[in-house]
Amino acid sequence: MFRFVHSSDLHIGKRFGNLPEDLRGRLREARHGAIARLADAARNHGASTILLAGDTFDTETPSPAMLRQALTEMGHHAPLNWVLLPGNHDSLLADQLWDAARAAAPPNVVLATEPAIVTLAPGVALLPAPCTTRRPGRDLTAWMDSAETPSGTLRIGLAHGPIQQFSEDAVASSVIAPNRAALARLDYLALGDWHGQVAVNERTRYSGTPEPDRFKHAKPGQALVVSVAGPGALPDITPVDTASFAWQTLPLPLLSDDGAAALAVLLPDASLRRQTLLRIEAAGRVRMSGRAALAAAVEQAAPDFAHLELDATDLATDCESTDLDLIDRAGALRDAADALLAESTDVTRSARERDIAREALVRLFTYGEAIAP
Questions:
Q1: Which among 2, 45, 10, 371 is positioned nearest to 213, based on CA atoms?
Q2: Cα 127 from Cα 147, distance rounded (Å)
Q3: CA-CA to 120 of 20 to 30 Å: which in 65, 144, 190, 297?
C-alpha cells in the first residue's frame, strides 16, 4: 500500500488585482496557508507524500521571500515529503526560479524538473512530466510509455496541462492524451491545470486547487488522498477539504419586487460570511423600487462578507412614470432620469451601455426616495 496526497495549482503569490486591496493580502496569505492544510490532510489520512502537479507559484518570477517562505514551510512538515512539478505558470523556462529553489529546498522537498523516474519509496516510481514552457505544444507525458521499471513497481504519473481534445479533422487543441495511464501502464496519473476536480477515468484525476481563486468552480477547494494497494490495483481516491475561503455563486430568481426578502433567505449563515466571497446572480423582472431595494440590501449585507457582488445582467427592470416621479416631477433630475431610461432601453446601444444607464437610474431612484417628503 502506498498513500499520498495529490494537489496542484496553489498559485502562491497570485495578485487578485480585480479585488479590493485589503482583501488581496488575505487571499494571498490563504494560498500560502494551503501548504499547512495539505500537510494536515496527509497526516490525518496516513499519507507520506504530497504531489503538487504544477503551478505551485503563480508566476515564473516569485519574489525571493515568497519562494523561500513556501519551501521553508514545507520543510517544517518533515518527515512528509513534497514533490513540486513545474507547471505552465512556473515552467522550466524560469531558470532563475528553479535554480533558487534547488538552493533553498529542504531535504524533504523534491523538485521534479526532469522527465526521469523518481523513487518515492521502495517499489514506488514517480514519472514526472515537467512543463518546459507555458505552452509546450506537445504531449510531455509521451515519454512515460517507454519508461521501464522493475516488475512489481507501482507507477505514478505526474503532469500538468489540459487533456487532448480530439476532433474529426485530427486537430488537437492541447497536449495530454486522456488514455495516457493505460498507454504508460500507470497505476495513477496525477494532473494539474484545471482548478476544479475532474475524474478523467478511474486512474486519472485533476485534483483541483486546494484554495479557490475564482467563482468558476462550484465545489470547495479540496485535495485528493490516493491509496494504491499494489501494481494493477485500482486506486482508492478520497477528496478532502482544504480551503480557507469559499467562493460561491448563488442564483436569485425574481418574479416580484420582494428581492430583498429573497436575498435574506439566500445568504449563508453569519458565522461563515467573513471567509466567503459571494456573487449573487439575479434574474427575472422587478419594478424600479424592487431593484433599488435589492441593491440596498446587498450594500447593507456586504460588510459581513470577504466580498459580495450583485450580477444583475439577467434582471429586467420595469419602469413607469410613477417611478420617475419619485425621483422628481420636473427639473434637472427628472430630465436626467428620462434620459437614462431612454438609454437603458435603446437597442442601438451596447449591452454594457444599457447596463450602465440602468444602474445609474437605480441610483437616481434611490436618491429620490431618500429626499422624498
A1: 10
A2: 8
A3: 65
Q: In angstroms, what CA-CA distances link 318 with 155, 286, 289, 325?
A: 62, 6, 9, 14
Domain ranges of the chain: 2-241, 246-371
C-alpha span between 280 and 273 (Å, rounded): 14
Q: Say which amino acid occupies 78.
A: A
Q: What is the C-alpha separation between 308 and 276, in angstroms, rounded?
A: 8
- DSSP letter (8 states) at residue 234: P
Residue 224: which residues within 8 A CB-CB, separation 6 or more? 5, 6, 7, 190, 197, 205, 207, 237, 238, 239, 240
Q: pLDDT tens-digit profile of 135-189?
A: 888 999 999 999 999 999 999 999 999 987 655 555 556 789 999 999 999 999 9
- For 68, 70, 330, 352, 358, the CA distances from 343, given in Å and listed in that order, are 54, 52, 19, 11, 8
2-241 has which fold?
Purple Acid Phosphatase; chain A, domain 2 (3.60.21)
Record the pTM: 0.86
